[in-house]
Amino acid sequence: MKIQVRYSETDAMRFVYYANYLVYFEVARTSALAELGHPYWEMEKREVLIPVLKAHCEYQKPARYGDLLTLRTLRWRLGAARLRFEYSVLRDDELLATGFTEHAFMHPSGKAIRPPKEIIAFFPDYPGK
């Protein structure tokens, strides 16, 4: 997906503020789920949450106000009830950042749950297993 850097996302050095990359990851993740036919808001209606357990980002080069960025997302299953999303942030063909988030499936009450089969079917096994 594409996203254009807004002025409010930059810092005093005129770079995208580092924490905003995690926001970009969330935008990419929710977009990917919607494209798969399981938008996050629909999952919430079914009382299925996927809270972040781990987040990581590595910064290669800065993005700046006005840059048009491409966000790429890969998705993996880490086991019976955990997911991993991997992200790349690019400006044209230039890699700016990479990262990942790992998630568990949870009921709104806070209890861990098994994922619905129709959702987990869209996640191949993680190659690093």
Question: What's the layout of helices and strands?
Answer:
Blueprint: E1 2-4, H1 20-35, H2 40-45, E2 52-59, E3 68-77, E4 82-91, E5 94-104, H3 117-120
**Annotated CATH homologous superfamily:** Hotdog Thioesterase
CATH fold name, please?
A: Thiol Ester Dehydrase, Chain A
Structural class: alpha+beta
Tally of alpha and pi helices: 3
Query: What is the oligomer described by this structure?
Result: single chain
Assess the beta-strand content as a share of residues: 25-35%
Mean pLDDT: 94
Trace the largest sheet across and list its strands. 1-3-4-5-2
Q: What is the count of distinct domains?
A: 1
Total E-strand runs: 5
- Rg, rounded, reads 16 Å
Low-confidence stretches: none
Approximate shape: elongated
Can you tell me the CATH architecture?
A: Roll
CATH level 1 name: Alpha Beta
Largest sheet: 5 strands, antiparallel
Reading the helices and strands in chain order gives: EHHEEEEH
Distance between the termini: 28 Å
Q: Brief description of this entry?
A:
The chain is α+β, with helices and mostly antiparallel strands and 129 residues long.
